[in-house]
Write a structure and sequence with these properties.
GO molecular function: transferase activity, transferring alkyl or aryl (other than methyl) groups
CATH topology of the largest domain: Tetracycline Repressor, domain 2
Largest sheet: none
Number of strands: 0
Low-confidence stretches: 1-11
Distance between the termini: 62 Å
Pfam families: UbiA
Structural class: mainly alpha
Number of helices: 12
Organism: Methanothrix soehngenii (strain ATCC 5969 / DSM 3671 / JCM 10134 / NBRC 103675 / OCM 69 / GP-6) (Methanosaeta concilii)
CATH class of the largest domain: Mainly Alpha
GO cellular component, one term: plasma membrane
Subcellular location: Cell membrane
């Protein structure tokens, strides 16, 4: 039997029309869709950035993953509605706040998942298989794996890797395993930064947080940072030595994130890094230098 929260009815009138669409969009967390940008790694680092014939397929994969990840976020909010109502920020999410019913949200989520997977099946079958694996792993995470420390972080990292693989698979290109490793380790950095924030601000927001300590998370964050920078440096050295030009920007970007995690408790919302002027400027410099190296110096 569904929990009582499934039948929760807000004192407010149920939203309709544009209001309902707004609540659904908010529940899909479009501000977190930046994570799906990992899909563009394949077309960028396979030297196909200016191959315009490939872009429709990559953009299609990006849109599909935005819809699918948004649907998973809705299911997660339904599952965690009671706990979210106790969280200082999550309690304002539409489902937890009561402005969007769980049944309506669940119906829309299932519909979006079905449509996305069906379209992918007919447009690009390998992409559909990656999406199915992504959905399976994330549902397993939502209902079971997120209760186990360390496993929760590994599953999140696997989700990022699947995005990167999907972006390469959809255009049938090869990218270095070193880059896949960098994606995996970057996910660790983001996840442990988030756990650090949660331990300080909302230690009861996740069951697995009782299996972490601040010192433990700090150590794991430091290890992940070291491994990430080493992996990126090795990629630059072994795959394309010209990419070593980008090392200062890569190192500064990671160091700056860690600095913000400890000084401003930034880890809870990694997307806020885009509001940090120093980080944003560094990201632009890294992007420009990487494109120049990959497409001009190489030529």
């Amino acid at each position: 039997m569904p929990p009582m929260s499934f039948y929760y009815i807000s004192a407010k009138a149920p939203p309709t029309g544009d209001a309902l669409l707004k609540e659904l969009m908010q529940s899909m967390r479009p501000f977190q869709w930046y994570k799906n940008m990992v899909i563009f790694i394949g077309i960028t680092f396979s030297y196909n950035l200016f191959n315009w014939e490939m872009w429709p397929r990559v953009i299609f994969a990006f849109i599909m993953f935005c819809l699918i990840s948004g649907s998973i976020y809705i299911i997660n909010d339904i599952k965690d509605v009671d706990r979210d109502r106790l969280h200082p920020k999550k309690r304002f999410r539409p489902i937890a706040f009561g402005t969007l019913s769980s049944r309506t949200a669940l119906l829309v989520s299932i519909l979006l998942l079905s449509i996305s997977l069906l379209i992918s099946f007919f447009v690009n079958r390998p992409l559909c298989y990656i999406e199915l694996l992504y959905v399976f792993i994330n549902l397993l995470y939502t209902f079971y794996l997120k209760y186990f420390a360390l496993i929760d972080v590994i599953v999140v990292a696997v989700g990022f890797v699947l995005r990167a693989v999907a972006g390469s698979l959809v255009i049938n290109v090869y990218i270095s395993p070193w880059l896949i490793l960098c994606v995996f380790l970057m996910s660790f950095v983001l996840a442990f930064g988030k756990r650090q924030n949660e331990l300080l601000t909302a230690s009861s927001s996740r069951d697995c947080l009782s299996q972490y300590t601040e010192k433990m998370v700090e150590g794991l964050l430091n290890i992940s940072v070291s491994m990430l920078l080493m992996a990126y440096a090795l990629y630059s050295f072994y795959v394309d030595t010209n990419m070593m030009i980008t090392l200062p920007f890569a190192f500064y970007g990671v160091f700056r994130f860690v600095q913000l995690v400890y000084l401003k408790n930034f880890g809870g919302e990694a997307e806020l890094i885009l509001k940090d002027s120093a980080s944003l400027a560094n990201l632009v410099l890294w992007t420009v230098s990487a494109i120049v190296v990959l497409y001009e110096v190489r030529a």
